[in-house]
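Hi C.,

You asked whether I'd gotten around to modeling the 422-residue construct. I have! Everything is below, sequence then structure, no commentary in between.
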Amino acid sequence: MPEPHHDSQTAVNAVVIGGGQAGLSASYYLSQRGIDHIVFEKETVVHKWKDQRWDAFCLVTPNWQCQLPDHSYDGPDPHGFMVKEQIIEYVDAFVRKVKAPVLENTAVTGVQRLGTGFRIESTVGTTTADAVILATSLYGAPSIPRIGERLPSHIAQIHTAEYRNPAQLPEGAVVVVGSGQSGAQIAEDLHLAGRKVHMVTGNAPRCARFYRGRDVVDWLWDVGQYGITVADDGMGKKKHDTNHYLTGRDGGRDIDLRAFALQGMALYGRLSNVSGSKLLFDRDLRTNLDNADRVYNGINALIDRHIAEKGIAAPPPSIYEPVWRPDTEPESLDLDAAGVSSVIWATGFRPDWSYVGLPIFDGTGYPVHRRGVTSVPGVYVLGLPWLWTWGSGRFLSVGKDAEYVVSELASALRETAAGVAA
């Protein structure tokens, strides 16, 4: 990609902070409108896909949902699930197509109001801009609970962002803390490799991979779930919820923790404390599993209603019945007695907006916006889950979000220019 010219002080119409798929999509539409801009990326544009995904990683949604601007998936397997190297190739091709003016390995250290525009401080100097798009998403630094500081020093600890494969871990059993998408898939990866896994569950829901003859994602697309916005009732209100766990591995399948338990995986409720070499748990394992199954069956019931209303010919409906139930609620696990050598923290990421010196945040530190437009004129956010729809922040809809945000930005620039001319 072309390296943008950048003196110690540069002026542009717009600055995009973050060079992932959100920032690149914004750059695509800014270039289409002839808006002078720079994209700041503190790492490299594809580093999250290359450096924060395990070897067996694959998409959870089918390939046809990869719809970056002017770069929809056009391969031979639209209903398959790209593996890590294929995803990197897909994103690399988008990078070459966009030719974004990206400054890689350049961290933004401050964003402040400057007159009617903004001053952006970075590790290469100062930039002034009329508008700023914050496209760093919620996936900043790995989030590891400080309770991990109390674990014995001989227990290896890594975050999912560092996990690559079972062979990188010392011999012995492994505790996976967190049952969201990454935690469930990594637990499966370890389980299939023959490692003893202790899975610490949480409130993550689950979803069927295939139901009544089709991928559930295809059904949900037809039902209109991906068109629900945060302005609607229903799932749109749950923009902070944990994603449903399932997998695209080996052509796609359900992830059923109860089935894993039958095969020897040990399951626990939420981690509550550490005492010496013991992990202590809440007594909510049954509740966590039941709630996940309730969501699973609820999604299938939604599909059942759609099929009935449209008179669609499909295989008969079914209800998931638990294949295993815990006899007791385990309250502790002695790591040494159980031969545990490693803990993997599947506890997500924390966003970093500490450099943003603008009043755009709510009491939780989350940016207040409507469809990416904040209350501070000229400041926009992009790449967030549920920015507007279920597909926001993903390959499916991040381009649509970027198109809207850039349209709003362009209108604001025209209004400012008209005001100056008058």
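If it helps when you're writing up: Confidence is low (pLDDT under 50) at residues 234-238.

Thanks,
B.
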